[in-house]
Specification:
Layout (H helix, E strand, L loop, with lengths): L47 H13 L5 E7 L7 H4 L3 E8 L2 H10 L6 E5 L13 E6 L8 H14 E12 L8 H4 L2 H9 L15 H11 L2 E8 L8 E7 L10 E5 L2 H15 L1
Parallel strand pairs: 1-2, 1-4, 2-3, 4-5, 6-8
Antiparallel strand pairs: 5-7, 6-7
The protein binds S-adenosylmethionine.
The site of S-adenosylmethionine (SAM) has 22 residues, from loops.
């Protein structure tokens, strides 16, 4: 059954449209051209199938298969397509009606996939303590701290005790005091063009691995591990955080790994998938 959650406070004008938070579109435009359904973002890996099997699945394998998966911000279902085969129920929640409609069409034959439109911050359609595994990849990187904090609160409510979450978010905030951030924007643009500085890929500057950990602690979630990764450039501007609702009030230490070879991993996966086909 494919459902849609139609209550959307954004129509009242209180919450900016999701397009405000995410890139790959000029700022004056309100519509992203989804003609390739997000497949274009997997280009460094060769395909989303190669990215899933070589990069995403190995990092979440211990959490799968499971009963109920919640995917936040699925877009046109690039990861939903794979996640759906690892669970009994999957809820996919996105703030864009175009994306929810696309997912509803794409997964219409899958009776265990439920697609919902939300207000860009709450998960009111998801019952308390009902989720075994929450997932989001390539979406939270654009979200500001206040929205991430809101979602973590919602995940504290909706995850079962022992339920886990895996979220790919921005670590750009870790570079806030770096020299490159103090270079005036016009000069920064030139330095990026000649590859002295790398691009920020619209990562949100208010988020970092440290901020995510403290938001988890404040919310009562246990941040188990964080992998700081580069995204198309040299700086580790992204982070893959794994966390758990463990039911205790004590915070255990987070295992933190710095991985500057993430894009080399992508290139290797791309080469391997080419030789296999
Ligand atoms: C760059 S796309 C990535 C989609 C998908 N995760 C993928 O990797 O193909 C970002 C997605 O996040 C959604 N989005 C942006 N802000 C959101 C928010 N605050 N809450 C829920 N979805 C949001 C957009 O509608 C879009 O579907």
């Amino acid at each position: 059954m494919v459902e849609q959650w139609t209550e959307n406070p954004r129509v009242a004008g209180s919450i900016p449209a999701p397009a405000t938070y995410w890139p790959s579109m000029p700022s004056h435009s309100t519509k992203y051209d989804w003609k390739d359904a997000g497949e274009e973002w997997s280009e460094p890996w060769g395909s989303s199938a190669a990215q899933w099997s070589g990069t995403v699945l190995p990092r979440i394998r211990d959490c799968l298969p499971t009963g109920t998966i919640l995917e936040i911000a699925p877009g046109f279902g690039r990861w939903t397509h794979y996640l759906k085969d690892y669970c009994q129920e999957l809820s996919a929640v996105d703030a864009s009606s175009e994306c929810v409609e696309a997912c509803s069409r794409r997964f219409a034959a899958e009776s265990h996939v439920h697609c919902y439109l939300n207000d860009g911050r709450s998960l009111s359609m998801i019952p308390d303590a009902s989720v075994d595994f929450a997932f989001s990849f390539d979406s939270f990187v654009h979200l500001p701290r206040e929205i991430v904090a809101g979602y973590l609160n919602e995940l504290r409510r909706t995850l079962k005790i022992g339920g886990k979450g895996f979220i790919h978010h921005s670590n750009l905030g870790a570079y806030a005091d770096s020299l490159s951030e103090r270079v005036p924007e016009p000069l920064r643009k030139v330095l990026r063009k000649i590859k002295i500085l790398d691009w920020e890929h619209h990562r949100n500057p208010t988020m970092s691995a440290d901020v995510f950990r403290s938001l988890c602690a404040r919310t009562g979630l246990n941040c188990i591990s964080q992998e700081l990764i580069n995204w198309r450039g040299r700086r580790l501007i992204d982070c893959l955080s794994l966390f758990e609702r463990d039911g205790s009030t004590e915070n255990t230490s987070t295992k933190i790994v710095r991985n500057p070879r993430f894009m080399r991993e992508a290139a290797r996966i791309r080469r391997q998938s080419r030789t296999q086909t």
